[in-house]
Write a structure and sequence with these properties.
Number of domains: 1
Distance between the termini: 15 Å
Structural class: alpha/beta
CATH superfamily: Ribokinase
Radius of gyration: 17 Å
Number of helices: 8
Helix content: 25-40%
Largest sheet: 6 strands, mixed
CATH class: Alpha Beta
Strand content: 15-25%
CATH architecture: 3-Layer(aba) Sandwich
Number of strands: 11
């Protein structure tokens, strides 16, 4: 019996569809994987900002993940907005009881419009309970400063490695560079370090690009890519999604990227190939 490539996203809901769970599901689907979700919080937002947010009961968050693992074990997982320390503790507990592989952590803290998306006590909980379980952590430049207190990219990566993050990508999409956007990649606790550059795309439609990037990495990992190749492929996916949606008007603020610039069929495989 053939199977899909299941990917689980654990994140918050964006009512305008540009970021969070919605962006993750679009990305995972566009790459050809089977998207599953556990919602941590509900936000009332649009392209201009976040008006309100409400965390989901931690027990319900945990049960969502448990039910997925019991029936369709994911081949990769990504986390996004985790909202509170209580939610993080619940997620950490259930992941600790499961066979987790390919966990990509996007430490979502602030929205594109500048709104806080995580409670103050959640930051330390994320560092101690989630980071050590991660295959990869993907903060943007602002989140890296908030998490480490460092301004130098290499020092940020070193500090994140010390927190238990073996592999780190510090995203440069929010930088002021107008020619290239450069991500700093530090793998195997700094044993392999390199930059990934992509042409800067002139557009205000950047809502949810961080979510898209981490969801794309998770999808490529599920498909069997190496970590390095998954990161590079995800960078290309985001760039092409930005290019495809650059001149589309969707809302009055930071609109979404076009995730379906070249959608793939839902891929499947034979888990027990014939000999």
């Amino acid at each position: 019996m053939r199977q899909y490539y299941p990917v689980l996203t654990i994140a918050g809901s964006d009512s305008s569809g540009g970021a969070g769970i919605q962006a993750d599901i679009k990305t995972i689907s566009a790459i050809g994987c089977y998207a599953m979700s556990a919602i941590t919080a509900i936000t009332a937002q649009n392209t201009t900002g976040v008006a309100a947010g409400q965390g989901i009961d931690p027990e319900i968050v945990a049960r969502q993940i448990e039910m997925v693992f019991a029936d369709i074990p994911p081949m990769a997982i990504k986390t996004g907005m985790l909202y509170s320390a209580e939610v993080i503790e619940a997620i950490s507990s259930v992941l600790g009881q499961s066979s987790v592989r390919n966990l990509v952590v996007d430490p979502v803290m602030v929205s594109t419009s500048g709104s806080m998306l995580i409670e103050e006590n959640a930051v330390s909980a994320m560092k101690t309970m989630i980071f050590p379980k991660a295959l990869l952590v993907t903060p943007n430049v602002h989140e890296a400063v908030a998490l480490t207190g460092e301004r130098c990219t290499s020092k940020q990566a070193s500090a994140l490695h010390a927190m238990g993050c073996s592999n780190v990508v510090i995203k440069g999409g929010d930088s002021d560079a107008i020619d290239f956007k450069t991500d700093y990649v530090s793998l195997d606790c700094g044993a392999e370090v390199f930059d990934i550059r992509a042409d800067a795309v002139v557009t205000q439609n950047t809502h949810g690009t961080g979510c898209t990037f981490s969801a794309a990495i998770s999808s490529y990992l599920a498909l069997g890519y190496s970590l390095s190749d998954a990161i590079k492929s995800a960078k290309l996916f985001v760039t092409r999604a930005l290019e495809a949606g650059a001149y589309i008007t969707c809302g009055h603020g930071h609109g979404p990227a076009n995730h379906f610039f070249s959608p793939r069929r839902l891929k499947n495989f034979n888990p027990t190939p014939y000999i």
